[in-house]
Write a structure and sequence with these properties.
Helix 20 links the parallel strand 2 (429-434) and strand 3 (453-459). This protein has a six-stranded parallel sheet with strand order 1-3-2-4-5-6, with helices on both faces. The chain is mostly helical. It has helices at residues 8-25, 37-59, 64-93, 96-110, 114-121, 137-157, 166-187, 189-194, 200-214, 220-240, 253-264, 268-276, 278-285, 287-305, 311-339, 344-370, 380-383, 388-398, 417-420, 436-448, 472-488, 505-515, 535-542, 547-555, 560-573, 583-586, 610-620, 625-630, and strands at residues 405-406, 429-434, 453-459, 493-497, 522-525, 579-580.
């Protein structure tokens, strides 16, 4: 975040914000709401930017060119240095699939658009957060998008004709943004989290602090009271909110208003050690660099050494953040920031390295995309394996993602009834209900029994339990199937398939019993094998030159609980419904990760490639033929 103010109270507040984010990302359990440090930064930015622009407007000195020049010099050099550093580490450490995704993010980060990508990627097939070194750039993109609209809005509202309604307009904008965020949060939390319109109210809260400061400072007693209240509320938010708290929305008001109170009530006599503490002030000064460097280091460390961070490792990582941030602040941030106040000629020369860095990022990232993540780094035995992106595209076309498989970012209205629930009177009709693994089941069974018409009602992370509390799209889809579609359509059977949670067996039993009132047959598909990480990553990490060696390595990284859980599920379900057991075919002796033709069978930790689905279909076709072809009854 920009370091545009020398107010030490704000530098200390920045320190508190960035430390909360870092401690949260280092998996310190005592601060589950540390991610709210980003919200604090948004309020601070709203305050400082509004204060500076309004001051310049009042003096008749505001210039859009000057404003954006200062923003670029303060934000872009450190950001571009981080992008270059991250691309280099990706080339050295990451396999091609992750490098390919990173290259896309790097290009979008140059143009402050990465938040749109992270929002669009949300879903079951998304790469885990701990494999996204530039995930934190979403907040920079939001802030920079805010900078695009805020100066013009302030200038427009500050004109002589509209000045009287200036602050009411800001207040109304904040309320509208807040209400919009709260509404969208319930139906599309990813959009509410990543997109700028739903964050505007946080910047507006910071701007409102300018309004109250202009009205006069509170008396000493109230200053102390407001500071205590502000810091207490902020710390309460950090220590008690967590990633299940719906953000942004009404819950965001507590940390955001707390931040505004601290800014408004700042008084030299009342801040004491917090204001004068050199460590906190310095941490605030380098907070932007700290924020930039900490997350890529965490991601690359976890990729190399595993997700668990021991106490000593956390301390070492924290120290490394400060060392790198201090260097970046001293040799990158400060020189370019000072160039803003230098002569025009020096200022122009200072911008040339920034433009050159941007060009370098675009060229290197472009080459990374063109070569599918620099796949030439792979040994010859692995270079022929398709990229995960290509395998997803091939699979998703068959599993009808977006039509018959809905992502969390979609609404139930996007479900295609005519395509997904088309009953064929000339064939047997079986409906598959469940999550992304049910979409895999559609691919498997359609290939195994081409003469059967398989209907599909599947959604991301959506268990086929009627009445269960899940996200809105999933609940609505499951409710429609159980309450509306099945009572009206007589089909031959229903197939339940999901990434089963074995503590929810009573819900599954209830679903089976409910279905028998509307269909003659219910079939349950068990969980396939799972790995602790992505199979393509395991293949690369194995360093092996033969399929046998790769599979031996992958077998050492199986999710150990899945096989026992599948056995228990089968034992509890079989008295009620036939059970299709994938695992007995996937692991006759050891578990296979390649097909007989030498093609990858898995895209990630458990989802099938199209080749993997087709091979499994061939293996189960005779075994379970009686369920779908020979005998339509229960």
């Amino acid at each position: 975040m920009p370091q545009s103010s020398k107010r030490q109270d704000i530098e200390s507040l920045r320190a508190l914000a960035v430390l909360s984010v870092i401690l949260f990302h280092l998996d310190f359990a005592f601060i589950p709401g540390g991610f709210l440090g980003v919200d604090v930064f948004f309020v601070i930015s709203g305050y400082l930017i509004s204060k500076n622009i309004l001051s310049d407007l009042g003096k008749g000195q505001f210039s859009f060119k000057g404003f954006y020049s200062r923003r670029a010099r303060r934000l872009l050099p450190a950001l571009f240095a981080t992008l270059i550093f991250t691309l280099l580490l990706s080339f050295l450490v990451f396999p091609p699939d992750h490098s390919f995704r990173l290259a896309i993010v790097a290009i979008l980060s140059v143009f402050s658009l990465s938040n749109f990508l992270f929002w669009s990627e949300l879903g079951y097939f998304d790469t885990a957060a701990h494999l996204k070194p530039l995930l934190h750039t979403w907040s920079l993109a939001v802030e920079e998008q805010f900078y695009l609209i805020w100066p013009a809005l302030l200038a427009l509202c500050f004109s002589a004709k509209t000045r009287r309604v200036f602050w009411p307009a800001i207040f109304v904008l904040a309320i509208l943004s807040l209400l919009l965020a709260q509404t969208v949060q319930s139906v599309n939390p990813g959009a509410a989290f990543f997109l700028t319109p739903f964050r505007i109210f946080e910047f507006c809260i910071g701007a409102m602090a300018v309004r109250f400061q202009r009205a006069g400072s509170p008396k000493r007693f109230y200053t102390v009271l407001l500071l205590l209240l502000g810091y207490s509320a902020l710390l309460f938010s950090f220590l008690n909110f967590d990633d299940t708290t719906p953000m942004p929305g009404f819950a965001s008001l507590l940390p955001c208003i707390a931040t505004a109170l601290i800014i408004y009530a700042a008084d030299d006599r009342c801040l004491g050690a917090l204001r004068t503490n050199r460590a906190m002030v310095y941490t605030g000064a380098i907070s932007y660099s700290l924020y930039l460097v900490h997350w890529p280091i965490i991601v690359f460390y976890k990729y190399q050494f595993g997700p668990e961070l021991g106490p000593i490792v956390k301390v070492i990582l924290l120290l490394s953040f400060f060392v790198l941030a201090s260097l970046m602040y001293r040799y990158i941030e400060t020189p370019f920031r000072l160039a803003t106040h230098s002569g025009t000629q020096r200022s122009k020369r200072g911008f040339a390295p920034v433009a050159l860095a941007a060009l370098m990022i675009l060229l290197v990232s472009g080459q990374g995309i063109y070569t599918q993540g620099w796949r030439f780094r792979l040994p010859e035995t692995l270079s022929a394996i398709p990229s995960a992106d290509a395998m997803w595209r091939e699979r998703n076309a068959v599993t009808r993602v977006g039509e018959c498989f809905l992502m969390k970012t979609q609404s139930v209205s996007e479900f295609s009834h005519s395509v997904c629930l088309n009953v064929d009177s000339d064939r047997k009709n079986y409906l598959i209900v469940g999550d992304s693994f049910a979409a895999d089941t559609y691919s498997v069974l359609s290939a195994a029994y081409p003469d059967v018409n398989f209907l599909q009602a599947t959604a991301e992370a959506c268990s086929p339990y009627p009445g269960a509390v899940q996200y809105a799209t999933c609940e609505q889809l499951v409710d429609f199937i159980f309450s509306d579609f099945l009572p009206d359509e007589r089909i031959d059977g229903v197939i339940l398939s999901a990434s089963w949670r074995y503590d929810q067996q009573p819900l599954l039993v209830n679903a089976i019993e409910t279905l028998y009132s509307n269909t003659e047959k219910v079939i349950v598909v068990g969980s396939g094998i799972r790995f602790v990480s992505s199979v393509p990553d395991l293949i690369t990490a194995s360093g092996a030159s033969s399929i046998a060696e790769m599979e031996a390595y992958a077998n050492q990284h199986l999710e150990s609980s899945e096989r026992e859980g599948n056995r228990l599920l089968k034992h509890s379900v079989e008295p009620l419904a036939p059970f299709i057991d994938y695992q007995q075919y996937q692991c006759p002796d050891s578990c296979r990760i390649f097909t007989e033709d030498g093609e990858p069978a898995f895209i990630d930790y458990g989802h099938f490639t199209l080749s993997g689905s087709r091979e499994l279909a061939g293996k189960i076709a005779d075994e379970y033929r009686y369920l779908f072809v020979d005998n339509p009854g229960r």
